[in-house]
Amino acid sequence: MTPVDAPRPRKRVADTRFTLSALMGPQDANSLGNVHGGVIMRMVDEAGALVAMRHANLPVVTVAVDSMTFVEPIRIGMLVMCKAEITYAGRTSMEIRVEVTAENPFLGEGKVTNTAYLVYVALDEAGQPAIVPELTTETPEEQARAQAARERQEFRKRQRARETGLMP
């Protein structure tokens, strides 16, 4: 049996969930008091990468970020939480869903400001793509997210094939 054909270990979505939190200060914002989108994007990428590393038990690199729309502004003094979980595991790639919530820490009221999907590839010691564990989904919500993730992954593959000229 070759390494490609070898059975892969399995991991549950719950095994790798992660939340990254930070209180937004003046250094994170523009002169109007709105937090820079780049600050949020960095937090999203860090939270996503940590989930991917936990799943793969290997270093990872970001290979794609699906659209990230900022629905609500985030202001100085807000607590930002990036809740990340894996939604798809291919042979070497993983899709991670990151939901960003901004909360007023005085009131305990939070709003989802955006959701993003990121794709990471695990790397071996030589910096080459490495095989990752299979994903086990347990709840109807996890199963629905996994199905939607498979559809997004197929779309990405078709898009990549068009961009590289492998598909008309």
Tell me what you see in this structure.
- With 168 residues, this protein is of the alpha+beta class.
- The protein has a single domain (10-136), classed as Hotdog Thioesterase (Thiol Ester Dehydrase, Chain A, Roll).
- The chain is built from two helices and seven strands; from the N terminus they run E-E-H-E-E-E-E-E-H.
- The chain has helices spanning 37-56, 140-163, and strands spanning 10-12, 18-23, 60-65, 79-89, 93-104, 109-122, 134-136.
- The strands form two sheets. The chain has a five-stranded antiparallel sheet with strand order 2-4-5-6-3. Strands 1-7 form a two-stranded parallel ribbon.
- Strand 5 (93-104) and strand 6 (109-122) form a beta hairpin.
- The longest helix is centred in the last third of the chain and has 24 residues, at 140-163.
- The radius of gyration is 18 Å and the shape is globular.
Secondary-structure blueprint:
Elements: E1 10-12, E2 18-23, H1 37-56, E3 60-65, E4 79-89, E5 93-104, E6 109-122, E7 134-136, H2 140-163
Parallel strand pairs: 1-7
Antiparallel strand pairs: 2-4, 3-6, 4-5, 5-6
